[in-house]
Amino acid sequence: MSLSVVYVAETGHVVGAVAVTGGVAAVDVASLAGSSLPIRISIPTGETAVLPLSDRQLAAATVDDEPGVFDNAFGFGVETVDGKPKPTLARLASWTNEIKLDGTRLTVTVPLENTSRAAKVIALVAEGQTVHLLVGEIPVNEKTVSLPVTVDTGEHGVLVLVEGWAGRLDSVSRS
């Protein structure tokens, strides 16, 4: 069996995986995800928020078999060396800190400070049919980032990817 993954190039988060038996695994984003990969989450209003990742944000790799990636893709990451993906997926640390959304910003806090280098952060916030793409980083020796975004009151689907931490797909209330 051969395992292909689609991952966010900027942060390394796996966002999809496919296993191929008796064939060659695909290694290009277009054949695995098309022009975008929609991530969906049900929000308490009964609606489904769609958070699409553009093919420009994604990369693909053939990696060693990892059955856990099918149960929790966001819990794995692709590490690169000289721009080439390592064959073994990295297991990312989970976190449960609150993701806060107020009228002007999304605040993300991870459990521990980054001591060796800044951690890249990508967040998607769904507001009806509009999706806000937020990009930033958690500085060295910090554990929080506030990303500017203006959204209406209510429930919003949110995808948060912090480099080195498991991805989070949540429904977040802005009151």
Distance between the termini: 48 Å
Low-confidence region ranges: none
| Main sheet overview | 4 strands, antiparallel
Provide the helix percentage: under 10%
Pairing-aware structural class of the strands and helices?
A: mainly beta
Instruction: Going across the biggest sheet, name each strand in turn.
Output: 13-12-15-16
Q: How many H/I helices?
A: 1
Shape: globular
Q: What percentage of the residues does DSSP assign to strands (E)?
A: over 45%
Please provide the count of β strands: 16
> What is the element string, with H for helices and E for strands?
EEHEEEEEEEEEEEEEE
Kindly provide the radius of gyration, computed on alpha-carbon positions and rounded to a whole number of angstroms. Answer: 16 Å
* Mean residue pLDDT: 92
Q: Which secondary structure elements does this structure contain, and how are they paired or packed?
A:
Blueprint: E1 2-8, E2 14-20, H1 29-33, E3 36-42, E4 48-54, E5 58-63, E6 76-77, E7 80-81, E8 84-85, E9 90-91, E10 99-101, E11 105-109, E12 119-127, E13 130-138, E14 144-148, E15 154-162, E16 168-174
Antiparallel strand pairs: 1-2, 1-5, 3-4, 6-9, 7-8, 10-11, 11-14, 12-13, 12-15, 15-16
